[in-house]
Amino acid sequence: MPGDVTLRQELLRTFGERVSQLGIADTALAGALDATQRPEAAPSGRAWTRPEPDALPRISLSFAQASMPPSNPDARTRADLEVHGVIGEGGMGVVHAARQRSLDREVALKTLKSPNAGDGPTAALLREAIVTGRLEHPGIVPVHALGLDDRGAPVLVMKRVEGVEWRALLADAHHPAWKLHPGDRLEVHLEILMQICQAVHFAHDRGVIHCDIKPENVMLGNYGEVYLVDWGIAMRSDDPRMAERSGLVGTPAYMPPELVSGGPIGAWTDVYLLGATLHHVLTGRFRHEGEKLQDALMSAFLSEPVTYDSSVPEELAQLCNRATRREPGARHGSALELRQGIADYLRHKGSIVLADEASERLARLEALLAESADGCAPSDLRRAYQLVSECRFGFAQSLKEWSDNTHARDGLVRTVMQAVELELRQGHVQVAEALLAELGTPPPELKERVRRAQKEAARTRAEDERLRALAHEQDSSVAGRERTKGLAAMTGAAMALSAFALSQPNPAKIKPEGLFVFGVVVFTVTLLVTVLWRKRLFANQFSRRVTGLMLLSGVLLLVSRSFGLWMRMPAPLIFTQDLLVLAAVAAVASVAMLPWLAPLAVLMVAGAAYCLASPGLSPVVFSLAGVLTPPCVALALWRHRVVEEAEREEAMPESATLD
User: Fold this and answer.
1) Which of 105-119, 227-241, 382-396, 417-431 has the highest mean pLDDT?
2) SS3 (DSSP) at 327
3) Which of 208, 338, 232 is nearest to 278 (CA)?
4) Could you tell me where the beta strands, DSSP code E, fall in 357-421?
5) In contact, 147 and 57? CB cutoff 8 Å
6) pTM, whole model, 2 decimals?
7) Contact status, residue 399 vs residue 405, Cβ threshold 8 Å
8) Which is more confidently placed, 483 or 657?
9) Which top CATH class is 32-333?
């Protein structure tokens, strides 16, 4: 953005002016970026001038080391504090291990490196003593006494802390002190930082700003104690330096912009330092780095947001960037607020772990779908559905533990989208539609895909219903039982009438009236069967056609008999005419619907020819044809059904036939 570029250029110009004011050369090497920059001399003001010898009480102590003999040799024999070692050294001071004889305890003594140190180091030690002495908190090392040794140099007597610097644990993953801190390493560091936040918040309530919070200034005791030490550059609200700072103060590696620019300091300054320390915990690197001192100071002055990699939890990354914002007002309002943010992360960590595990499964699900051909379901459907279930459960449990976990919420949305994709690829549109409803506001392209799939599914369903209706209309099994009963009734009627015809001694004397009555009886039986089972016999097209064929046969037989009666035709000729009419019906039916009726048509033609050739046997021939017709029709229907079922099984998909 042009505005951001302009702002950065303005900041760089201001930084250049500040560097010139501080007198820092462009070629100045960075050196130890984590070393504290201290004021060279104390400003004017009553609180920080070197005290007169009688301003502080005398402290009797003796040095066991020959390198630092007391000015009065007799002091060793009557001293209450006996120094017997060095715990550590800083830029201007030394911390000694000592034994207090009167109380029979080990203490720590902080003295100047040289009794002839200038006003700056002396004021710093006195300041640390006075500030720390006023801060009685479990996270701040207690001050037992402040006085002068027999040389007139200030001596600070403090509780001796048995332990290590926090910096040592950050630098060495195999440090022996880790045995005292089992469990997740990140949680251990965060718990330490939370305790430091409490101590810093207490100091802020007392009007004290530490100004130099860093892992080096945190001591870890052997029994879980956490102390924030080295208050040498701390400032109080009544400290003249709050408004009179001309030099560089603090540690460049962690320094907030206001300590570089000389701007106002306050609780926000320590909040920044706590955030920079958290950055070190998360990355193992300083917040500000560079080959030259100016590089580190420029980083501190700009304090641009850091882009953390995926190994840093997003919630902690946000805490870091907020705490180390350039604008003090954009940082956390207090050290306690920052502590609460860390506590929230620890409380949310279980939710974050669940979301991370679910995200790994989601990645595998997405890869499984990506490996499949476009629009095709994955080969391992069971695995795909298992991953969908595991992802949904994992993200849901994560949100149950922390409802504001945006990572879990986004993961759940992605999972449902993949589930929709999986169902669409299988044509399960209704399931996809139900899943889509869970998204609330689904992506437009996914919503459009489901809509298109719905239209295609509706078209397919309509086509399937049409085909099923068509198949039903042609299904020969429909009303099969009723057709069988009808054919049996017609067979019975035909046999009864045939017996009557055969009982006549002279076929030539059979009158047309009797044959007409015969036709009426056959038609009546056919009509009664049709009326009795009409719902079933008219259930589909095939049944209607077969029923129509039966009715047509009865009607044509009745017409043939009526014509014979009208023409007063002899019985053999009427029988021949009947057989030819029935042969024609059978032939048409064999072509239109039942191929296996063709033999019946041939049988009828042969019978008609025989009746013409042997008129005396025409009643016998016609009776045999009438008795054989229903079984032939039944056989043709059975054969048609067998062929129909075979064709249906052949057309059925292979997957549907496997069980």
Assistant:
1) 382-396
2) coil
3) 338
4) none
5) yes
6) 0.64
7) yes
8) 483
9) mainly alpha
